[in-house]
Amino acid sequence: MTVKPHNQFPLKVLHHAGSLLSVGALLFSWFACYLWIMAMTEGWGAPWDTAPIRPPIGYWQRTVNDFFESGMGAYLPAALFLTISVFLYARALAHTRTVRTTSLMFSLTNLAALVGLTAIGLTVGAFLTRVPVHLTPEDWSYWGDFRREWPLFPIALLLFAGLFLGQSHLAQRLFPEKR
Question: Which SS3 state, helix, strand or coil, does residue 46 take?
Fold first, then answer.
């Protein structure tokens, strides 16, 4: 009497479906981070983009605003984030060789950083962006001023640096290296 091997087809389909779902979650997290960074670049880097009055041409505030308002400057922070994140993901994937868990770990940490930065940014931003009493709508710094918003930049940079370091260490520590 011969014993038939157990049919592994349903298990393989479930495994591949789980991998596809985790890669989909990773792509969604990258897209969400891209949109958030694009919105914050517009808000923090170009605060006068929709204001009726802008700083005069030649002021450094106007130069920075114009750089981040359109063209390469508008996409630079998001492109930098995605480049670093994809590089770290590829490196972690080469180390772990488990698409499902690596993708899921990266997507969850990306979304957690996004939620954390949104909460911190809104909280800090609420205190920083209040308009000083002595300014009137005729003054261009009434509509935005880097002196009021500068702390948001290092907060975002520190959180993203922590995200990248955390993802790199998680990939090395959670998953044994497979050769």
Answer: coil
Contact between residue 85 and residue 103 where contact means Cβ atoms under 8 Å apart: no
> pLDDT by residue (tens digit) across 16-45?
677 899 999 999 999 999 999 998 888 788
Where is pLDDT greater, at 121 or 59? 59
In 3-state terms, what secondary structure has residue 153?
Answer: helix
Q: Of 156, 145, 144, 25, which Cα lies nearest the Cα of 80?
A: 156
User: To 10 degrees, what angle do helices 72-96 and 9-40 make?
Assistant: 150
Dump pLDDT digits (tens) for 125-138: 777 666 666 767 67
Cα-trace Rg, the chain: 22
Contact indicator for 81, 160 with CB cutoff of 8 Å: yes
